[in-house]
Amino acid sequence: MEGNVRRYLGRKILIYGLTFFLAVTIDWLIPRFMPGDPIANMLARVSVNSNAAQVMHDYYSHVFGLDLPIWQQYLNFWGSLLQGDLGKSVYLFPKPVVRVIIDAVPYDILLLLPSILLSWYAGNHFGAFAARSRWLDNTVSPIGYILTATPYMWLGILLSWFFGIVLGKFPIAGAYSFDVRPTLSLSFIGNVLHHWFLPFASLFLVGFGGWAIGMRNMVIYELEADYSHYLEALGAPKKLVRKYAFQNGVLPQITGLALQLGVIVAGALVTEVVFSYPGIGSLLLNAIQNQDYFLIQGCFLFIIIGVLLANFAIDIAYCIVDPRTRRGMTGETA
Amino acid sequence: MKKLKKNEFLYFALRNTKLQVGLGVVLLFLALTLAGPLLVRNDPLAYVNLAGAQPPSSRYWFGTTFFGQDVFAQFVVGLRATFVVGVIGGGLGTLIGLLVGFTAGYRGGIVDELLGMLTNIVLVIPTLAVLLIIAAYLQVRSLFTECIFIGLTAWPWVARAVRAQTFTLRTRDFVDLARMSGRKSLQIIFAEIAPNMMSYLVMAFILQFGGAILIAATLDFIGLGPTNTISLGLMMQYAVMWGALLLGMWWWFLPPGLGITAIVGGLYVMNVGLDEVFNPKLREM
């Protein structure tokens, strides 16, 4: 029994390990084999005096280590990566990339964790509730489809425009007002929540629509399955049949959550851009506009690591929820 | 027998409101895109209105941007970009997924293991992050390269579905018979297996179509869109960047998002309708 879980998770870890390896390789490969001179491009964008430019040029040439043999460059890249060295940011020179990103990550967690978990939970329950109930289905499903088809940034733009500009109820930029200082006071937390609400709401709504529809379809499949009809024929109460349908339908939704993570993170990036929320998304926009390649590469790695860790957490949750993974019957494999 | 089956699908397709509504919306926008050149009087990127931003009027149907560009012209040309991304990006994704899935499911064994590993890896990687880092290093980006990159990263969903389907089909009697009669693998795949999963492929393509549109919008919005044309995502990026929200220029940022939402939503609803047509259990009596 223990062995089965270990094999299941071991297989997953192998995949994640390979993925991480591939991601780091891409991160190393692309700057070196793309046309053009990234260092020159990068430095052309920042207007510093020629002395400083020379220092920066030397620094970046050294970091790229372009005079070394290619395999040596690759190994060095891994070496410095494992020491937590992702180079220095260009437009925030000489701040290390890792420092810049770690300052931004808490805002991403603050935004992503509640919106993912709440939208998943609420969407599933609502979708299961709406399934095969004609009246609810006819009103809820269309709204769900519209929400899940909405590009994240557009919903963000709409909310920010309507609640921020037209009604003037919510701030539309930043994580807290410029005139308050970060302290652990009630008024500061209130201020942060006030700024947090709209970006959270737009992430929540898009996710909610998707999960609700997914669960609705899943429950309909389950209710039409033979075991449901059998239970009905035995005279089981409707509530019990629906309960089983929900329990079976929720498993693919867990797998779905793992598979959707990349899309959700992408959605969070653009939502942050809309609301100028100081997470990785805004950082990335600045990095792209300033052609700060080291920062872009750092963000890329952080996003990958974050998604892999979240995937692993979901795998563990899946092992706990689905008894088949424990008994060695192959359950859903993601 | 075959004819009767076709008619049955047609019978339900003509009576499925979801399919009709979804298809109707998509066709409406497609018609606007195709008729676009007749309706548009201005170059989408030219600064035609010297007065700058103006709300919709009879002269500029969707108003003008901060710089006096014709929003309607941008919208119509942006719609074209959206459909191009959907067809090429989504089509390429479906095609690659189809090939990988077929090969893995039909060959089985070590080939299946390796392809499965590859599929899982590409599935786990947040594709946008990969697209982002590639696009960031390209100085000049065209709509076509964007489509290719999206297609190259979007296929794992299709591969998984197709593999699972092929797996169940390949052990059926009629496939065994074909194999015993000495036909080649490729012939069996295309003559025996593929027709039985046509419905899956159509639906997979529709989902890829919609997915590619959303990915392209995200890339464009974050500043990595095509550098030589306009798209709906780029319109939204410019609108936000130049303060359309603060200035209350709703005519600038409403149309592009509305266009994407309507097309992608139409595709999704159409897909559910098709599912009901193909799968008798889901039909609402």
Quantity of strands of chain A, as a count: 0
Nearest-integer average pLDDT of chain B: 85
- Gyration radius of chain B, to the nearest Å? 22 Å
The Cα radius of gyration of chain A reads: 24 Å
Number of helices of chain B: 12
- The proportion of strand residues of chain B reads under 5%
From the 3D structure, determine the CATH topology of chain B.
MetI-like fold
Major β-sheet annotation of chain B: none
Counting helices, strands and paired strands, the structural category of chain B is mainly alpha
The unreliable regions of chain B are none
Shape verdict of chain A: globular
- Biggest protein-protein contact in the assembly: A-B, 65 and 52 residues
Count the E strands of chain B: 0
Number of domains of chain B: 1
CATH class of chain B: Mainly Alpha
Number of helices of chain A: 13
Mean pLDDT of chain A: 83
What topology emerges from the helices and strands here?
The complex is a heterodimer of chains A (334) and B (285).
Chain A: H1 2-33, H2 38-45, H3 50-64, H4 70-82, H5 97-130, H6 134-149, H7 152-166, H8 186-223, H9 226-233, H10 238-275, H11 280-289, H12 293-321, H13 323-327
Chain B: H1 2-14, H2 17-39, H3 71-107, H4 109-124, H5 127-137, H6 143-154, H7 156-169, H8 173-180, H9 185-193, H10 198-224, H11 232-241, H12 250-278
